[in-house]
């Protein structure tokens, strides 16, 4: 059927079979009925205005010529509803070339969304399905206006969000240079703070002597080289007595001198209990670390000191013989030799380790030097090939290389930070484990009860979820079964669509059959014309030869009479076939009239049945409202 409609296939010429397949519609008078094809100019104008509105709003799929008007309009309405960011409980899913059921479902969803969006216009699903563009146009116009307002409202927010997401994942060369400058500035600020940090100049010996807070504050400031003026209490006393001192001008200078003298005396008293703190003085922790590292040497020196002390005491108590002194001296020297030997071995092992590190560093330095030389040579080669054409490309390449190096450095810093953070978290985890071990048995019992209760509740929750899933599946199955049964409105729409489809198929079939008829007629005409031309050519070619003698002339005339007789026979056959076809047409017309009469009776019966059903529903409603006796 599709090949015939496209006109790309013509079967072998069989005029009788093609004539039998023709089904033309006739009215009661025997006239042909043209299929109903309505083209409303106003509908087409509104459709073009809807397409222009959708294109102006940004829905450029409306330009695709392969889409049907329904797909263009409904797709634009779905796009507008989605663009408005309106929270609805309806899943708007638009697909091209949908089935009739899917189209009906989609139009019903769109119509249910519009009241939630407070649309001032009312529309029905069958108006969208039936392409009633006159009533669809105001709704599309309002949706486009609402979509444009929503995009203007959320445009700046979306742009700022996109920029923030870009800065989270990417860095521009300006950002990298700014971070580098900030890093240098931060290093400079830290160096300045370290250089000009507060340094302790004095240290107080006895902190317990200072009882009041003000004295401790003065003492702390003096330890760091700062001096505070007159105390607040004294300044308050001076402020209270200022009026009295103003009256006596001569006594003002004496009070000031006495006050300064008291301050100096107080400073001297605080400085008396302090000692100068040298910058190179070691703290207790530093001394402890040094002692820990030099424990063996200190112990050896202590043993040597004890031996010397014993020798001195022995020389004082009694005279030792030369042999004993020699033995003691020899033992002392042997101990020193053993100590020095152990120290030498330690120094040699440290020297070997340092030599290995030195060799490793030399290899690294050599590799770095080679890499630097290769980079310099490549940079020089790039500089040689640089010109005005590839200058921008090379500059872009340099920026990318700098960005790559910066990213590598950031990656190394991040790894170091992650290791530190992991060590810190492991320490916290160990502390928490230690604290957990130290919990009492009561806490453990309570935790056990909580875990048991949690496990019980989790099992109940899992069972309830399984039951809910089963109920949801049952509900979905019932919903699908309900959706499979079409409603009365859907059936009416199906019927209307089938009628439209039948009209389209009928018109296409009529057009195709007209093409067949025209082809067969022209083919017959060509065949008869070819025969006529061949006959005339034969007569023309043989005419001169036939007129040459009486016998050939008589034979030529007989042949001509036979040809005329054959043409008359063919004409009789065609006339007979025409009469048969006409009789067949009249018979089909009578059958059609009988079928039309039956169809009229059917429609009348259906109408009466509907009326009786309506009366039955009214009576049933009255019986339902009637109170029971």
Provide structural commentary.
- With 629 residues, the protein is mainly alpha-helical.
- The chain has helices at 2-6, 15-20, 41-57, 69-83, 100-116, 125-129, 133-169, 173-195, 213-223, 232-240, 242-247, 250-272, 284-293, 295-317, 322-385, 391-437, 441-484, 488-546, 550-625, and strands spanning 202-204, 274-276.
- Strands 1-2 form a two-stranded antiparallel sheet.
- Helix 3 runs parallel beside helix 4, helix 3 packs parallel to helix 7 (133-169) and helix 18 (488-546) packs antiparallel against helix 19 (550-625).
- The chain has 19 helices and two strands.
- Residues 1-38, 88-92, 230-252 and 277-287 have low confidence and may be disordered.
- The relative contact order is 0.04.
């Amino acid at each position: 059927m599709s090949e015939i409609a496209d006109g790309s296939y013509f079967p072998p010429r069989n005029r009788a079979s093609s004539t039998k397949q023709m089904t033309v519609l006739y009215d009661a008078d025997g006239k042909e009925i043209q299929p109903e094809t309505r083209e409303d100019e106003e509908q087409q104008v509104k459709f073009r205005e809807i397409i222009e509105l959708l294109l102006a709003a940004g829905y450029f799929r409306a330009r695709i010529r392969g889409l049907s008007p329904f797909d263009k309009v409904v797709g634009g309405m779905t796009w507008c509803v989605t663009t408005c960011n309106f929270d609805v409980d309806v899943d708007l899913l638009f697909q091209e070339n949908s089935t009739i059921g899917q189209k009906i479902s989609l139009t019903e969803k769109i119509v249910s969304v519009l009241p939630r969006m407070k649309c001032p216009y009312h529309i029905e699903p069958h108006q969208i399905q039936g392409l009633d563009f006159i009533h669809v146009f105001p709704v599309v116009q309002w949706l486009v206006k609402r979509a444009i307002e929503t995009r203007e409202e959320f445009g700046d927010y979306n742009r700022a969000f996109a920029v923030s997401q870009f800065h989270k994942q990417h860095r521009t060369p300006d950002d990298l240079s700014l971070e580098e400058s900030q890093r240098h500035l931060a290093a400079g600020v830290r160096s300045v703070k370290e250089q000009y940090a507060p340094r302790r100049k004095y240290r107080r010996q006895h902190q317990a002597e200072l009882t009041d807070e003000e004295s401790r504050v003065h003492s702390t400031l003096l330890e760091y080289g700062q001096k505070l003026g007159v105390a607040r209490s004294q300044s308050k006393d001076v402020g209270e007595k200022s009026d009295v001192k103003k009256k006596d001008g001569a006594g003002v200078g004496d009070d000031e001198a006495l006050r300064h003298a008291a301050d100096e005396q107080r400073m001297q008293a605080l400085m008396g209990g302090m000692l100068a703190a040298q910058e190179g003085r070691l703290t207790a922790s530093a001394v402890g670390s040094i002692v820990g590292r030099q424990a063996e040497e200190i112990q050896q020196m202590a043993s040597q000191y004890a031996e010397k002390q014993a020798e001195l005491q022995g020389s004082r108590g009694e005279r030792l013989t030369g042999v004993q002194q020699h033995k003691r001296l020899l033992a002392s020297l042997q101990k020193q030799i053993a100590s020095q030997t152990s120290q030498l071995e330690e120094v040699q092992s440290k020297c070997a380790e340092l030599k290995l590190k030195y060799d490793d560093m030399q290899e690294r330095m050599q590799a770095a030097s080679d890499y630097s030389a290769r980079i310099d040579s490549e940079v020089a080669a790039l500089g040689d090939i640089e010109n005005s054409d590839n200058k921008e490309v090379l500059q872009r390449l340099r920026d990318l290389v700098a960005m790559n190096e910066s990213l590598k450095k950031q990656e190394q810093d991040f790894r170091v930070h992650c290791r530190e953070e992991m060590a810190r978290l492991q320490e916290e985890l160990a502390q928490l484990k230690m604290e957990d071990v130290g919990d009492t048995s009561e806490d453990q019992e309570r935790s056990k009860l909580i875990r048991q209760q949690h496990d019980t509740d989790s099992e109940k929750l899992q069972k309830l979820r399984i039951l809910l899933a089963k109920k949801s599946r049952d509900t979905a199955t019932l919903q699908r079964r309900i959706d499979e049964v079409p409603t009365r409105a859907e059936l009416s729409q199906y019927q209307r669509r089938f009628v439209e489809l039948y009209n389209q198929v009928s018109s296409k079939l009529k057009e195709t059959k007209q093409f067949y008829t025209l082809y067969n007629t022209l083919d017959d005409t060509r065949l008869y014309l070819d025969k006529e031309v061949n006959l005339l050519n034969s007569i023309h070619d043989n005419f001169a030869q036939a007129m040459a003698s009486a016998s050939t002339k008589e034979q030529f005339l007989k042949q001509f009479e036979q040809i005329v007789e054959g043409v008359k026979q063919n004409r009789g056959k065609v006339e007979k076939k025409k009469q048969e076809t006409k009789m067949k047409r009249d018979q089909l017309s009578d059958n059609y009239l009988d079928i039309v009469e039956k169809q009229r009776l059917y429609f009348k019966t259906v109408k009466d049945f509907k009326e009786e059903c309506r009366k039955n529903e009214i009576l049933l409603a009255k019986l339902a409202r009637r109170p029971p006796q």
